[in-house]
């Protein structure tokens, strides 16, 4: 068991539930449908990669560099991809005009892709 991986996954899962509920109940009729859809995308991808992080704990005894790389790319990917979408989704009510956030989202997506590739290779190499 890798405590760091499980704690990270549990924290991201908790936050995803809270933000999902906030989006469904707190943002309804306050932001556009498009912004609400972006919020839902952020929550969904956070959940997908939370489960991926928790799956990494099954490899925790392997001390595998590829698994560690997947852990970090999924973690930073959630922060960049989902985090930027959360901020972009609430621009209508926060007044945030951070144009730098647009390019951050695909960087987070690229990190997700790299994490999945790393997990794929680690699984092939695992004995």
From TrEMBL:
Localization per Swiss-Prot or TrEMBL: Membrane
Species of the source: Albibacterium profundi
Pfam family, one: DUF423
Keyword Oxidoreductase attached: no
Membrane-spanning residues: 39-57, 69-88, 100-124
Keyword Transmembrane helix (UniProt): yes
Similarity section: Belongs to the UPF0382 family.
Membrane topology, from the record: Multi-pass membrane protein
Primary location class: membrane
Keywords: Membrane, Transmembrane, Transmembrane helix
UniProt protein name: DUF423 domain-containing protein
